[in-house]
Amino acid sequence: MNLFDVYPLNNIEITKASGSNVWDAEGEQYLDLYGGHAVISIGHTHPHYVARLTEQLDKVGFYSNSVKIPLQVQLAEKLGQVSGKADYQLFLCNSGAEANENALKLASFYNGRKKVIAFKGAFHGRTSLAVSATDNPKIIAPINETDNIIFLPHDDEAALTQAFESYGNEITAVIIEGIQGVGGIKEASVSFLKLIRSLCDQYNAVYIADSVQCGYGRTGKFYSHDYAGVDADVYTMAKGMGNGFPVAGISIAPKFKPWHGMLGTTFGGNHLACAAALAVLEVIEQDNLMKNAEEIGTYLITELKKIEAVKEVRGRGLMIGIDLPQTLSNVKKDLLFKHKIFTGEAKPNVIRLLPALNLTKDHADQFLNEFKKALKG
Ligand SMILES: Cc1ncc(COP(=O)(O)O)c(C=O)c1O
Predict the structure, then answer these.
(1) Mean pLDDT across the chain, nearest whole number?
(2) Which terminus has fewer CB within 10 Å in the chain: N or C?
(3) Closest Cα to atom 3, ligand 1: which residue?
(4) In the predicted model, is pLDDT for residue 57 greater than 90?
(5) What is the CATH number of the domain that holds 337?
(6) 360-372, pLDDT tens digit by residue?
């Protein structure tokens, strides 16, 4: 049997990982500023994480949501506390797409409506509703095409106001990333997020904050949307939540009332997933990682802005986009193969930095030195 060949792969096999470093099968060391796409939040093989998962595996790895799982309650309490939303409710699932899918369903159950506002450049996942709300026709199958999604220009207050004036009573939800990831590290402005909040209030629509990539402390606040000083109704999260263990969730405002059977999943919230998510939150809290993300991120952004060859530096904390001119389209590959640094990318020529939140200043300096060398070719 062959693998279904959907991924363009780098010819590297990772066989060992620790903190912000990984090693390939030949023993070559790399600096990891990608974290497997914003997933490694507390560093590879963090000792507390390994111990908690191993202990849990020795007790019980999985049981479904047909029995009490006190670890879920502990996780909800911890998440409520660390995210500053103690009165919200937690539904656990397995991936970012599934989190957004459930958030959109929840919105539609809540107000009985069908239309969703999403934005140009958005990426919300590959399941049916999530992919329909994703601005990439190439990955939308004919069966996912729907008139229920209204795509608006990103951060355009006039267009948003106009859409609500035209369809207000049909709109179930507005879904927006605090900082677009796949779209090239583009932050929604404070005034735009405030306007979403007030229009959703006015029209009884649901404000869904897709925090799958920009959340979980990466920007220095638990949810990057919260820089706007207004609460979303639903926050979706995944990537950094389990430091590599597949776990996702939605944090749901108190006004939503659950009923049995409303949402569900076989694997979501299993014992191992909860242990992984708890270990991550414990490390984020104990090691003050949100502060570190903000400080090291600000340092990196400041230093990167000084480099003349760079067109623009965008982002916040440890979610950084380095926009390069097309003449420097070799830099991303050179960083990996010549300078042994993993980074992410976005089109047309943006390097994305999504490292672990405990990245050190030495790591940041190592990157800056190698990046400057890579720019020279
Ligand atoms: C903002 C955002 N939402 C949703 C998703 C989908 O997450 P997953 O791949 O876990 O389904 C992604 C993945 O890149 C993402 O960046």
Answers:
(1) 98
(2) N
(3) 124
(4) yes
(5) 3.90.1150.10
(6) 999 999 999 999 9
